Amino acid sequence: MVNPLSKLPPNAGPAADSEPDHENSRAEVVERLFREHNEALLRFLRGRVGSHNEAREVAQEAYVRLLSLDQPGAVSYLRAFLFKTAANIAIDRRRRDQNFDRVAGRQLFAELTENRTPERQLSGEQTLRDLGILIEGMPAKCRESFVLNQIQGLDAGTIATQLGITDSMVRKYVVRALLHCRQYMDIERND
Fold this sequence. Notes:
This protein is mainly α. It is built from 7 helices and no strands. Helix 1 (about 20-50) packs antiparallel against helix 2, helix 2 (about 50-65) crosses helix 3 and helix 3 crosses helix 7 (about 165-190).
């Protein structure tokens, strides 16, 4: 894992000009926490998120939050704060993933594939054509993410690898496209 402090310029932060000693001492405390507890934190997180890479990302975010504290407080409490923050981030990510799975798992076009009268079938075919045009008009990565997930059934990790973007970005693209299509379908129904 990359030490989160290595990316920061010396005395980085909002109070860099006014309190350089405070910033240095905070960075030193967090760096010491990183050296002494990072492996334990990663083991703790792997048990919660199931993936070494995800555990590293969560730990990185927890260190960044720790660095952003105005008053880092007593060193004995920082370790507990770091682990609690990391656990909360892991929970937030799990909830986000569950929400994505719930939204992406819905059959967007299910109501268009049911048996219908000839008039309703014609209307459904027109709606599908309109949605096709709507999808074609989406930005490239958004469109590709949507088609790979909703039409081809690929998961976010596979799509992210294929497109060279993060899982999180794939989820955002798919949800954005689903909402866009759903909004169009709702407008069509009301007309």
